[in-house]
Structure formats: C-alpha cells, structure tokens
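Worked example 2:
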Amino acid sequence: MEIQPDEFCENLTKYVRFPTREVMVGSLGIGGNNPIRIQSMTTTDTMNTRATVDQSLRMIKAGSELVRITAPSKREAENLRIIKEEIRSCGYNTPIIADIHFTPNAALIAATIVEKVRINPGNYADRKKFDFIEYTDTSYEKELDRIRERFIPLVKTCKKNGTAMRIGTNHGSLSDRILSRYGDTPFGMVESAMEFIRICEECDYHDLILSMKASNTRVMVQAYRLAVAMMRREGMNYPLHLGVTEAGEGEDGRIKSAVGIGSLLEDGVGDTIRVSLTEDPELEIPVAKQLVQRYSTRNSHSKIRSIKNPPYRPYDYTRRSTDPTGNIGGKNVPRVIIDLSAIDKLMPENLIDAGYIYSENHDKWTISDQSADFVYIGKGQVNFELPGTLSIIQDGNAWQKKDQTLPLFSLDHYLKYTGLESKINFVSISLSDCFRPELYTLNNKQSIVLVIDTKNEHGIAEQRRAFFEIINNNWDVPIIIRRDYNASTKDEFRLFSATDLGSLLIDGLGDGIWLIADKPINLITQTCFGILQATRTRISKTEYISCPSCGRTLFDLQDITEKIRSKTNHLKGVKIGIMGCIVNGPGEMADADYGYVGTGIGQISLYKGYEVVKRNIPSKKAVNALIDLIKENGDWVELNDE
C-alpha cells in the first residue's frame, strides 16, 4: 500500500487542521471545531480517594480539561464513582477518564461511571510474551474473532451509557500478534488500533478518539501521520490524542514532547494533547498550554507557494542526501552554530557557554560533548588562538580571511563577490530566493552551505517548502536551519524552537541548526543539543526514557529517576528506560539499552533490551544493580576517564 507524502495533512503549505468528527466526553467536545484540548493523568493510588481527588483538583485548577485516572482492577474502577462524586461536589464537571490495560472487567465497570475509557489494544484482549508466531490468514482471523468476543461487551456498554473511548496504541506494548505480522513498526501500531476501531464501527459505535504514543519521537510522528492517512482511506475521521510517552523530566522531557507533539500540531494534526513528564501532573499543564497557544491564530500566516508531489518521506526516516562541504553535510552529524554577534569584543571567556573552557595555567581548551561547532560573531573580530574544533563565522564584508574564520554572505552579495574564496561559504537565503534561477548557478561550487531563514508565522512549512524546491532542482547542498526567537519567553523559546527545528530534523531535513534569541547563551547551546538528541540526529548525552508515573507505579519515579541520572548522566549515547510498572515497561525496553522496571512492591526487574536479566531485586539495591549490569555489558565509563 503506497501512501502519498501529503496524505496525512490537509495542506503542507497552509495551516489547516485535519477535519475530525466531534466526540463528546461528558459536556466537553473534542475534535470538530473545538479548540485543542489539554489533559493530564493522576499519579496517586486510585484507592487513596482523598489524594486522588486533591491531585485532580490541582490539575483542573491548572487548566486540565480532562482528568485521567488509572483503574488496574475492579476495585479501582468501582472507586472512580466516589472520586467523581467528590470532584463534582467541589463544583467541577471536568470529564473523568478511566485508564485500563489488562482488565476488561474493570473497563466494563468504569464505562458505567466515567465519561471516557482508555484502552490499549496491545494488552486489553491480546497477549504479549515476546513470542514470534507464524499466522496464516485463517489463524489470524481466529485471533480477531477472540478479540471481538472480549471487546464487544465494552463497546456495547459504552454505547449504552454514552461513554467515549480512546483506543490508545503504545509502541512499547504492541502484542505478539501484531509484532509477528507487522513488526515493531509505525504501521503495526496503526493497524493495532484500526482492528479495534473496525470492531467499534461494526457495532455502530463512533465515540472514539485515537492515539499512537511512543517515546521515540520519529516513531511517534510517523505513526500518527500513518493513522491519519489510513483513516482517510477507510472513510474515518476520529479525533487524535497526541503525546510522547515516557518523555522524561525537566528540559529534556519538555524538548522531547515539543518535538513530537509540536511537529504534528504544525501540520494540523491533533485535537487533544497530554505532555507526559516525570513530574507532578499539574506541572504538565503550562507546557501543554504553551504548545497549543501558537495555533489559535495560525491560519492568518503569510501565504506560501503550494507544491505537488512533495519530495520527502514523512512515514519513515530518511536523511536528505547531501555532498559534504567541509565538516557539514554528507555523513556528518548536524552542526550547531551559536550566535555571539552581540558581544563587542570576543574573548576566550565568551566561549564558555558555547561549550569551550580555556585554562590559562595549562594553556589548554576543555571541550565537551555539547560544544558548538561554529560561533557567529557578525562584524566582530577574533584575536586569540581558537580551540581546534571551533570555527568562527563572520559577515562577508568583515571576514578576516584567516584560519578558522569563515564568511557569511547574503545571496546577492555572494553572487557579486570576487574576492578570496573560503573553504566554506555560508550563504543566507529565504524561500523567495529558492525560486530565483541565479541561486542554482552556484550548484557547481563545492564550498557552499545554505542558511535558510524564515519570518513567516508558519515557519516550518515555509522552510520545508524551501527544502523541497532545492531538492527538486537536484542540488545536494548542505543546509543550515536558522530561526529567531527574540520575542519569546525562556520557556516558549525552548518549546517553540524544539517544535520548529525538530519537525524538520525528524523528516531528515537539515545539516545544522542556528538559534537566535535574547536568552542566556548556555540555554541556547543546551537547547540546540537537546533538540538534536530528541530527534536522534546527534547523540551527546545519556537518554532517559522515563514514564510520567500513575496509580500503577510501584516506586517514587521522580526520586529514582534523579538517583539513576546522578550516577549515569555521563554515559553518552546510552538509553535507560525507567518504568513504574510492567504495562509498558517490557515493550519500551526495546527502545532502550537498559531498563529499570517496577514489578512488585519494593521489587525491581532489570532489562537488557527486551530481555529480563535480573528479576525481583530489592529496590534498595536496584540502582547499584543497574550500574553493575551496565558495567557487565561494557557500556560503563568512569567519570575521570579522558
């Protein structure tokens, strides 16, 4: 089945939301003409009524329009009635969602109490033992018949009670049946949900919302795009719930969430969002609000020239092929350019926040894994010896023409330039320049790197359109993505830049990034490397795949995540999954090198990939046991190693 590149999106050059049906969750409409809704999930024990109600109220007061509560068994499902009554008695009609995984009986109870039930097709009525099974069409259909038998009672209950349902696929909990037939793929994620949607439609039940969550931002974005394309093919238009699962905490969790959620919102995909942070749920709400607020007036953006047959692959990752210019493009990782042009006279100490520390006593530079590759100083000059891995970019008319300095030209300036050629010539262009024939006269030059700018409110679409035009002109020139955020707050800068650059990088577009903002330089540097890490285009630190906690969690996730981070954050490129329970734990381990998963009160199991290698370790010994496991597999590096 060949899906066209623009089949997931109403318009690649004009902001238009994917038109979905309205689904009522209580009195709250999701999809249709409703605004993008914001929600979160409690982290308390559902049987602790007071704690769950109090946390729900904090979430609601922070702006959560829906509250999700886990119901892992019939007891918790029954207790949702009391929790709901308590919340209603406080004057709030916020819809309650029951989160169900392995227990259909709990779902049947919850569907008579709350306004919405979330089920995961990977573990609601399916099996997951990491077994590969050879299915014939007949045996596969028999499995679907078994699932229908278990699932239809819930569909009928929801239909009778006016209860909405989210069919929420998680990359980490695809069933053995789906993995055996479709593999660990975005397509498998979508088909897992579509099987359940088709059963709902057989029962004439349509109060459905769909989600395709993953901790890998590429997989997550590709799965949602495929879901839209496949729904279109089958005449469906169900609302979409967006989220990056196990995004983590702090800056990393926010950047990762923005890359995944923002990339989809930019193309009009998404009707409700949940930002999953390993923090208190009310802290997720301001992040979600900032991500959503950009789109309330987005349809008024400046016009962008349309395109037919866009030359890219939005459903699987393929990096755009380029001919390297110096250390940019080709097989090189995306480069980071830091703007220090506001500094009158560049001194060695100015480079500290760009990742370079100079020791006068030893006459030596210390360079980190998050050191900028280039520093732009505009018309400034440099009069000291630079670290060997750093190059300075200067405006073309101020270029010093000496080692480690490189010029930046406008297109018109470079077309007229007749002076000394540099090994790398940066040429700044906008989308309009991409339609000028003169630009492509530079195709025969081996020293060009383009810097694409935009001032369009719909900047991703404009810069993506520039890439398309250059690709269609068969020019394999390296391209730097530059964005200016001088008007944003610190939090907006981090989220908006992660959305804008991350979306392009996820699609394999861009050989470097350049952020401009009136913000601390160390924040800009950290954000650049955080975006590259979140898009998996340049790994410069340890990655933590950490779930946001819920009532199923068997230990203090925030505390344990911080303990593991404090001991392992120097392990560049190692991915560690930290899961509160087994719902997604084993599956998410497929995307991690090592896993720390709660399997009982005070008990932890450790994973290497999918495989459980140590079971039921006392929690007091588990962090050290994880470190021992990393050492046994040769991935440990001592902090004092050079």
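The mean pLDDT is 92. The CA atoms of residues 429 and 452 lie 5 Å apart.
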